[in-house]
Amino acid sequence: MGGLLALSRRARLVVAVALLVLAGLVLVVAARPEGPAPLTAHDVDTAVQRGITAQAEAQARAPADASIAYSAIQPSLVLVTAVTATGKDTGAGVIVASSGLVLTAFHVIDGASTITVSYADGTSSPARLGRSQRDHDVATLVPERLPEIVVPAVLGGALTVGAPVFAVGHPLGLTDSLTAGVVSALDRTVQVPGNRELQHLIQFDAAVNPGSSGGPLLDRAGHVVGIVTGLADPTNESRFSGIGFAVPIATAGAAAGGPAR
Description:
Elements: H1 2-31, H2 41-61, H3 65-73, E1 77-84, E2 87-95, E3 102-104, H4 106-109, E4 114-118, E5 124-133, E6 138-143, E7 164-169, E8 177-192, E9 196-204, E10 216-218, E11 224-231, E12 244-248, H5 249-255
Antiparallel strand pairs: 1-2, 1-4, 2-3, 3-6, 4-5, 5-6, 7-8, 7-10, 8-9, 9-12, 10-11, 11-12
C-alpha cells in the first residue's frame, strides 16, 4: 500500500506540474501581440511617394553640374593678353601642368610681341611661347612667374554626342564666364582665316564669343575635354550664332608637346 500511495502522489505531482505549464503557455499565447497587419495598396503608395520626395529633396540640395565644373576649373583658368602690331588681343588659357604650363589657342597669341597671363589669384606674369601647332590652333605658354599655388586642370577623356559640356573663358571681356550646352557633333572640319582647315573638332552649342578662344571646354566633372578654337560666323560679325568648336584635348595636348591620349 505504501508503494501505491507514493506512486499516486507522484502521479498527482506530475499532473499538477503539467497543468501549470499548460496554463503558462495559454497565458503567453493570450498575451502575445497579434502579427503585423498586411500591407495595403495605400501603404505601398505612401512609401513610394516618401522615397520620391526624399530623392527630389536630395537632388535639390546637390550642386548643379555647371557649378561643380566651374569650381573645379576656376583655379586653373588664366586670362591671356597678347600685344601685336595691330593692338591688344585677349583670350583664355588653362594651366595643365605643375610647372605652370598654359595651354591656349594659337590664334590668340599669333604674332604677339609680348604675352601676359593673369591668374585666378589676381597675379600676373609675362610669358613666352612654348610649343605650338598652327594646323591644330593650339599652343603652350611658359610663364616667367607662377601663382603662389599652382592648380593644374584635370584632363578628360572622349565625348559622345549629347553629352553636357561647359565653356569657360572671357567672352567680350567678361572674365571668368561659364556657358553651358551639349556636344552637337564630333570630328568636324571647318575653314578658318588664312585658307586653312581645322579638322577633327568638337562641335558644341555652349555660347562662345571673342575672348573665349583658348579656354577649356569641360565635362560635368570639370575635366578639360577640349580647347575652344572658334565659332561659326556666317555673318562675319564675330558673334556667336549657336555653333562653337573646340580642339579635342587628345589632339591639343599631343600637338603642344604632351603625351598622346
